[in-house]
Amino acid sequence: GILDATLARDADRACELLAAHIRLTYEAVARLPPDLFTPD
Q1: What's the longest Cα–Cα distance across the chain?
Q2: pLDDT at 1
Q3: CA separation, residue 24 to residues 2, 7, 8, 38, 40 (Å)
Q4: Which of 4, 25, 36, 40 is the 20 to 30 Å CA partner of 10?
Q5: CA-to-CA distance for 9 and 17, rounded, in angstroms?
């Protein structure tokens, strides 16, 4: 029904936003110096 279609569309949108967020976060982390997370 209409509700199912709306939920499916919202889920698709949410997945797109989540994927974009993950990609941006990954790119930001990739730009950090590699020794930032290595304990001395």
Answers
A1: 58
A2: 87
A3: 33, 25, 24, 22, 28
A4: 25
A5: 12
What stretches of the chain show up as alpha helix (H) in DSSP? 2-30
Q: In terms of residue numbers, what domain contains 13? A: 2-36
- What whole-number distance in Å separates Cα of residue 24 and Cα of residue 8? 24
What pLDDT does residue 39 have?
Answer: 79
For the chain, the domain total comes to 1
DSSP 32: S
Side chain identity at residue 9, one-letter code: R
